Amino acid sequence: MSQHEHVRVAVIGSGFGGLGAAVRLRREGVTDFVVLERADSVGGTWRDNSYPGCACDVPSHLYSFSFAPNPDWPRTFSGQQHIRAYLEHVADTFRLRSHIRLNHEVLMMRWDRDELRWEIETSRGTLTADVVVSATGPLSDPKIPEIPGLADFPGKVFHSARWDHDYDLRGKRVAMIGTGASAIQIVPAIQPEAAHVTLFQRTPPWVLPRMDRAISGPERWLHRQLPFTGAARRGLLWGIRELQVSAFTKRPNELGLIESIAKRNMSRSIKDPALRAKLTPSYRIGCKRILLSSEYYPALARPNVDVVASGLAEVRGSTVVAADGTETEADAIIFGTGFHVTDLPIAERVVGADGITLAEAWKDGMESLRGATAAGFPNWMTIIGPNTGLGNSSMILMIESQLNYLAGYMRQLNVLGERAALAVRPSAVGAWNRRVQERMERTVWKSGGCNSWYLDANGRNTTLWPGTTGEFRKATREVDLAEYEVVRMPVGTAKSAEAAETAEVVR
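== Baeyer-Villiger monooxygenase ==
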């Protein structure tokens, strides 16, 4: 990378958000952009998470771009390898490879007030960009809790998102920490080969049956020959989930029927009353993410699996100790403890117009306008930003809405010309987030009686969107300039410190 390279747009990350942004930029006629990826291949979380049993809990035909349908999904719920292959296919089909810079980790991004652009320091050099699109995603940096004695554990330790495929679990005593979406897929996958699996559970999840099956050859042929059939399938899946939203966001008491289905799913495999009591949640279904599995409970009923209904508290040599004092000998500890979702590490690496980092700006909680732009950070946009997550549908729908907003943002900048930047008004960010949080109070995520990774340290849900994907699509359809300040430099002057001092702010 040239030390002085400048591009119109720098996209950070090459998962669904980053590749989607790249496609949309090309469609808008923007070809002067790069995609900076810290790893050696594209794929985002579907590259990083390669643990045994890894698969998506959203139907395949809904978990893909509308502009890049895949008629050849092999299963109704596709596995990690198929989703990763799909993203590689998107990169090839839309000719994105020439824009992608692999092994370019972003170390710091600073807004240059004098030049009205971002200076980006990477592991391979420095470049500048007029606009930054941060598409690192909330599921990119694993979280491992600080456990006394963990550093002295003589066995193997790794996170589910950093699976060690060179380590053979056959005949090993495995301590699985956590009972989230990763753990309920890992346990059934490793149980047959491990000597013993001990699952450390702080809070039991609600688990519904996973209605997965192979998609037949005739179905795939039909979708290839008649693409509208695949679109109809996608539309049906979307519509069903849109109808479910009100139960999560307005009428949580209606979720009781879903709880009864989850309890029947458990009772079919768990006959031991004591184990069933351990595995039965005490909170309303939906408060934490609903998980899908038809193999989890059968695996827990196997004789070489134990469930400790208490979190990991300490490690003493090869002995793993739970908070309730239960001791277990282990050869390997696997953490399925999630990610830094409400304290995004990338926020430490973004320095805005006022000289403070995004992490400092968000010290009391993440806030942005329409999940996209943050006050104090001109010409900076995030994909899958604050309050854009979903509890029951496909994140690709939300990503595509944000890509619409990105397109509108670029159009506005093009109209304004090169010597201009857009800075979101703090009042607009505040008004948007007040409305979001007011709606959040009625949701199951706030009233369901649980403590989930949706909530930040202050108990605010800064993760999920409290409405339908259709509502969000409407809210991000266009960029309203009234919500922004247009920062300009005088025509005819060089972009310099002197010019910056006399910069005009069009209000």
